[in-house]
Amino acid sequence: MATQTVEGSSISGPRRTTVGDFLKPLNSEYDKVAPGWRTTHLMGVAMALFAIFLSIILEIYNSSILLDGISMN
Amino acid sequence: MGLPWYRVHTVVLNDLGRLLSVHIMHTALVAGWAGSMALYELAVFDPSDPVLNPMWRQGMFVIPFMTCLGITNSWGSWSVAGAHIVFSGLCFLAAIWHWRTGKPSLDLPKIFGIHLFLLGVACFGFGAFHVTGLYDMEGFDPFVPGGIASHHIAAGTLGILAGLFHLSVRPPQRLYKGLRMGNIETVLSSSIVAVFFAAFVVAGTIYAGLAKNQSLSEARAGSMDNKDGIAVGWLGHPIFRDKDGRELFILSVTVEFYGGEFNGVSYSDPATVKKYARHAQLGENFELDRATLKSDGVFRSSPRGWFTFGHASFALLFFFGHIWHGARTLFRDVFFDIDPDLDAQVEFGAFQKLRDPTTRRQVV
């Protein structure tokens, strides 16, 4: 496996660029978490609602649920 | 010496520039295939007889999809093919640019939030863009339930809202640890889920003819038992005879054609009658040109048949792949070799003292 040495690399750390400095805040919170379970219950509720939504639109399209305004011909 | 062949791709795991680069190269290949396939099909497609020689009998694969999205003339098709090839070339160059090493620590939840937001914008834009009249099809009516444009507008809105949520809320520690959100293999495992799920859905809908607004009459879903019933006994070989004990078709049956090229013509000689009876068993009778393409008469499957078979097969493989990478992610601590520098890993088990819950290991 060929590893190329980048000229100008020193022990001062990774290379800094203008775009890199601009984007740095977006990659600065590595491993940061909210304590405990926090929003997990909200996620559970959202998953359940989404599952119900998908079941509804599937059964409308399948004509297992019949609505007055919608006809599947 | 070095890695065994089935582990060679691990060299990009801890090297993010190269990980990105190989993904972009894959995108270049995908887009390049789409453009090349479109180019080839356009070169051999014969649009002169859409009734008896439709595109699917000619083995066209991507042209039906382009037609579904509203491209009905050849200039549109050539532009789509060209655009994909140009895009593929740009991706190729980008992949080469990114082929550099980098420090291995990415904020994956943040990346997820950004990507979901951007995808939501693009998805919404696709739906709204196609409603404003660039292409002219009922499928693009936002008020058609289940329609293409209405789906993208709704899904795009959901993507934007969910993206903003994920950008402002950090994941709970329990889920971060439980799903190993610091390890990129968890991303791989969940991506494989998306692929196999899509493959199963798409194999099923193409099989049932629901995709592209086709009618259900051509290919009903469900087992053959739902069609003929459940077999409970064999009745024996049937021999048909007329009242004089002779086998059927010898003298008493004729065949007459209604409509089509043989309209009004009838045959009574047994060989001809038998021939048309056998052909009718397999479907409508057609006059076929076997000379032009030197057709060999062997049964072939349609593009839809191959699509279904191929996608179902890949879906199964990707399901296995998800289980594999998911297991590797969740059981990483017992799957890999023990690192001599990691003294916290030397003793296994939830408790530091056997069967003593008060000595439970504290999670950092």
Automatic annotation (TrEMBL), chain A:
It is found in: Plastid, Chloroplast thylakoid membrane. GO terms for molecular function: phosphate ion binding. SUPFAM superfamilies: Photosystem II 10 kDa phosphoprotein PsbH. It is a single-pass membrane protein. InterPro entries: PSII_PsbH, PSII_PsbH_sf. One of its GO terms (biological process) is protein stabilization. Keywords: Membrane, Phosphoprotein, Photosynthesis, Photosystem II, Transmembrane, Transmembrane helix. The chain crosses the membrane at residues 42-61. Its main location: plastid. One of its GO terms (cellular component) is chloroplast thylakoid membrane. It holds the Pfam family PsbH. This is Photosystem II reaction center protein H. It comes from Gossypium darwinii (Darwin's cotton).
Automatic annotation (TrEMBL), chain B:
InterPro entries: PS_antenna-like (IPR000932), PS_II_antenna-like_sf (IPR036001). Its main location: membrane. One of its GO terms (molecular function) is chlorophyll binding. Keywords: Chlorophyll, Chromophore, Membrane, Photosynthesis, Photosystem II, Plastid, Transmembrane, Transmembrane helix. It is found in: Membrane. The chain crosses the membrane at residues 20-43, 78-99, 111-131, 143-167, 187-210, 305-324. It is a multi-pass membrane protein. GO terms for cellular component: photosystem II. One of its GO terms (biological process) is photosynthetic electron transport chain. This is Photosystem II CP47 reaction center protein. It comes from Gossypium darwinii.
